[in-house]
Amino acid sequence: MFRRRGLIRRRQLVKAGLAQLVFMRFGAGESTVRRMAERGMAVLTGVRVDELRDIVSEAMEPVLKPLVYTEALDLAASHAAAGERTYIVSGALEEVVQALALELGFDGALGSRCGRVDGVYTGRLEHALYGNAKVDALVELAARDELDLRVSTAYSDSHTDLAFLERVGNPVAVNPDRELRKLAEARGWPVLRFTRRGVRAP
Q1: pLDDT at 39 (0 to 100)
Q2: What is the distance between the alpha carbons of residues 39 and 33, in angstroms, rounded to a whole number?
Q3: How many C-beta atoms surround the C-beta of residue 14 within 10 A?
Q4: How many helices (H) and strands (E) does the chain have?
Q5: What is the CATH number of the domain that holds 80?
Q6: pLDDT digits (tens, 9 = 90+) for 84-134
Q7: Are 89 and 129 in contact (CB under 8 A)?
Q8: 115 touches 121 (CB < 8 A)
Q9: Residue 19 has what pLDDT?
Q10: pLDDT, tens digit, for every residue of 36-82?
Q11: Mind listing the pLDDT tens digit for each residue in 161-175?
Q12: What's the burial of 8, exposed, middle or buried (CB within 10 Å: 0-12/13-18/19+)?
């Protein structure tokens, strides 16, 4: 969608795709995550916020929803059926995760923020939601929505989310990188394997 509007060159897309593949396959430390986030935000330099929202809307069906694991949605539905609220907490761009949460029926979402001036993105990472910042955001969310983190469940695939997982009573590793798998096994945390992507039609 970005390429079609002339916002991203082919070279940038390839680099972003390779970086994501490396992260998903081998995991990454916090410094690597930050560099990847900064490069991703730089792509938005000069893009209007409302235009980005239009692009996200256009990309929802062909690009974003096919990336969602159906097992994740099944789990979210089971939590909702038990009267529990569900949220997406991600290092991805705030506008993207909020749109996904709304589309998929979650109660809300938290994401990283790109700086903006007069409705236009600066391309600079303003608030990166990973590491301690993700924990702080979780605590703020819990206070705002009156959530008891001691009985809450959190899911992650990365060892960089260790503090985030430790903050809840029920941490779960999903498709974990090698370091998180070792930690989960040592601590007796559940380890789940998701394999089915794509949101099913109702």
Answers
A1: 73
A2: 10
A3: 10
A4: 8, 6
A5: 3.40.50.1000
A6: 999 999 888 888 889 999 999 999 999 888 899 999 989 888 988 888 999
A7: yes
A8: yes
A9: 37
A10: 667 777 778 888 889 888 888 887 888 788 888 999 999 999 999 99
A11: 999 999 999 999 999
A12: middle
**Spatial CA neighbour of 94 closest among 129, 122, 121, 65:** 129
Q: What residue numbers bound the domain in which 57 lies?
A: 10-192
3-class DSSP assignment, residue 3: coil
Q: How confident is the model at residue 137 (pLDDT cuts 50, 70, 90)?
A: very high
Is residue 149 a part of any domain in this protein?
A: yes
pLDDT at 92: 83
The pair of structure tokens assigned to 159 is 């060892």
Alpha carbons 3 and 33: distance in angstroms, whole number: 24
Residue whose structure tokens are 């391309």: 123
- Token look-up 């790109």 returns 114
Distance, in Å, from the CA atom of 197 to the CA atom of 55, rounded to the nearest integer, reads 22
In a domain, 24, yes or no: yes
Tokens of 66: 């096919």
Q: Which helix (H) or strand (E) holds 115?
A: strand 108-117
46's tokens:
């000069």
